[in-house]
Structures are given as C-alpha cells and as structure tokens.
C-alpha cells in the first residue's frame, strides 16, 4: 500500500495533522527539527505522531527529512539519463505508483482547439489533497485541469486555471469532480484519463514528463534531450510551466541542474513535499 492510499481525503483530524506536519517539515527541514517539535506543532505526543506519520509514509519523520535535502536531489539528477532510458525502453513511467502507469492522455481535436472551448462544458470543484486544497476541472472525457490553491486565494486560482478554456461553460460541481480527486491521489489511478490541450510540442513535453519514474527527477536540459530538442531547454521550461494538470502530469519532477527546487507555480515548498513523499515511497517499496 502506498503513502497516498493511506491518506484520508475526508478532512478528518488525522488528515489535517499530517498535512500540517508536511507543511512544517518542508518549511523547517534545514533546521532538522526534533520529533518533539513537530509533534507539538500538530498537537500530538511524540509517540503518537511517530506512529501516525510512519503508518502513512512508510518511514519515520526523521527519514522523511533526509529526502527533503538538496543532496538527495543532486544524487537523483546524477542518474537522470539511465533512469529515463530505462523508462522509455519499458514503455512505462517506472515501477512506482500505479496511477503513473494508468494515466492516459487524450489531446483535444483541432476543431475543439479552434472553437476555443465553445460548446464544451467543464465541471470544477475543490478537494482536499496531501498537498493542500486542490482545484480539479474535468469533462466527461477526463481531467483537464488540476491546480493547488494560490496564495492569492481560490478565486485567483480558478481564474488562472479556467481562463485558458475560453468560451467553455464552467459549472461548479464538486460532487462530479470528487471521483477524479479520489483517483488522482489514492495511488491506484484506475482508468483515470487526462485530457490535454496544447501545441504538438507541449504535448510531447508533457508525455515525456509522464515517463519520469516517481522518486526521480530530471533537469530541464535532460528533458530537452529526451524530447529530441537538446538546445531548447528554455522552450521546454516554458512547456513545463504551462502544464495544466499538476501532479498527474508530474512537472514537479523537473528541477534545475544544480539540484535547486524552484520554478513551481504552486510554490517550491509544495514541490519539495511532493518529491520527498515520492522518494520516501520509492525507498519504502524497494526495502
């Protein structure tokens, strides 16, 4: 069972505590906070916090802190070429969370692109996730948008994600998008489909992102080589930044060649938490 399969999305007190603990660890990891400090932050005794965190992450809070470090990111980058080659050889994104194997993408048709969304009905809704509240946008064909709440608030997040759909009719319907939220974060994925709207180059970059195994990272330069454009790292970075389906299309797995974790629309702290959780899960599975 994966980390994310263990996380309760119903807004329970335990879920809120784990979410708070992740946020605290990401903000203070350079200080290497003691177990007692983190437990106090979430209102639990050290013993109960250790048990709760380990039951979900598969490793201790101390071990999780190690996965937040720059050195871990650099070590992962060092093997980026062999990792991606192996993934392409297998035709899959790697042996990690099953949803990375099951997520299929479907580009919109030229006619839909030309109409700028006219006649298209979108459902959207807010849901809990391991990384804070997220906004999911979907059609009957699948998920076409996944964003995390911006510092400017929900209204700004909705405008940012829904705006590019132009003349599409957007209906707030969290009961409809709930099933997509469950599949997106439960580690299983099922037949979850992602509907992507982009240029042929952007689609190619987003496909390459899906092939990066969980727990691994790549540089922008490495991704440019992977799509056959070794001199186009800047253009690749632009396509990564325009990815409309966060998490499922894992743009968070792209970092600078120095190992620095920056350049994430939803905040570097959230990106670091995603990478640390994936690395911890990969290590737990290997063990």
Task: Summarize the structure in words.
There is one protein chain. With 287 residues, the protein is α/β, with parallel strands linked by helices. The chain has two domains: 4-69, Homeodomain-like (Arc Repressor Mutant, subunit A, Orthogonal Bundle), CATH 1.10.10; 73-286, Arc Repressor Mutant, subunit A. It has helices at 13-28, 35-41, 46-57, 61-67, 70-78, 80-90, 99-102, 110-114, 154-162, 174-185, 200-210, 220-226, 233-241, 268-286, and strands at 104-107, 121-127, 134-139, 142-148, 169-172, 193-196, 218-219, 254-255. It has a four-stranded mixed β-sheet, with helices on both faces. Helix 2 crosses helix 3 (46-57) and helix 12 crosses helix 13. It starts with 12 loop residues before the first helix and ends with a helix.
Which regions have little confidence, pLDDT < 50, spanning 5+ residues? 7-11, 86-103
CATH class of the largest domain: Mainly Alpha
Number of discrete domains: 2
According to DSSP, the number of beta strands is: 8
Category by helix and strand content: alpha/beta
Q: Output the CATH homologous superfamily of the largest domain.
A: Winged helix-like DNA-binding domain superfamily/Winged helix DNA-binding domain
| CATH topology category name of the largest domain | Arc Repressor Mutant, subunit A
Helix content: 40-55%
Radius of gyration: 19 Å
The biggest sheet, with number of strands, parallel, antiparallel or mixed sense and barrel status, is: 4 strands, mixed
Count of helix runs:
14
Distance between the termini: 13 Å
Q: How much is the average pLDDT?
A: 78
Q: What letter string, H or E per element, gives the SSE order?
A: HHHHHHHEHEEEHEHEHEHHEH
User: Roughly what fraction of the amino acids lie in strands?
Assistant: 5-15%
Please give the CATH architecture of the largest domain.
Orthogonal Bundle
The shape, in one word, is globular
The main sheet orders its strands as 4-3-2-5
């Amino acid at each position: 069972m994966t980390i994310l399969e263990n996380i309760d999305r119903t807004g329970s007190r335990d879920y809120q505590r784990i979410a708070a603990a992740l946020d605290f660890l990401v903000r203070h990891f350079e200080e290497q906070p003691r177990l007692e400090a983190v437990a106090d932050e979430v209102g639990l005794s050290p013993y109960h916090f250790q048990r709760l965190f380990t039951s979900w992450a598969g490793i201790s809070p101390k071990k999780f802190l190690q996965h937040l470090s720059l050195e871990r990111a650099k070590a992962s980058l060092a093997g980026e070429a062999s990792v991606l080659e192996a993934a392409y050889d297998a035709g899959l994104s790697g042996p990690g969370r099953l949803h990375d194997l099951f997520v299929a993408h479907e580009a919109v048709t030229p006619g839909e692109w030309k109409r700028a969304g006219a006649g298209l009905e979108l459902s959207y809704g807010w849901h809990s996730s391991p990384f804070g509240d997220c906004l999911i946008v979907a059609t009957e064909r699948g998920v076409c948008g996944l964003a995390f709440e911006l510092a400017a608030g929900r209204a700004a997040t909705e405008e940012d994600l829904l705006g590019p759909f132009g003349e599409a009719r957007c209906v707030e319907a969290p009961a409809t998008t709930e099933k997509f939220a469950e599949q997106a974060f439960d580690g299983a994925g099922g037949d979850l489909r992602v509907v992507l709207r982009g240029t042929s180059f952007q689609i190619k970059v987003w496909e390459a992102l899906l092939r990066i195994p969980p727990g691994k990272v790549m540089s922008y330069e490495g991704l440019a080589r992977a799509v056959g454009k070794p001199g186009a790292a800047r253009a690749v970075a632009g396509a990564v930044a325009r990815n409309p389906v966060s998490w499922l299309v894992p743009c968070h797995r792209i970092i600078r060649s120095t190992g620095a974790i920056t350049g994430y629309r939803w905040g570097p702290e959230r990106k670091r938490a995603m990478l640390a959780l994936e690395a911890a899960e990969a290590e737990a599975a290997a063990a």
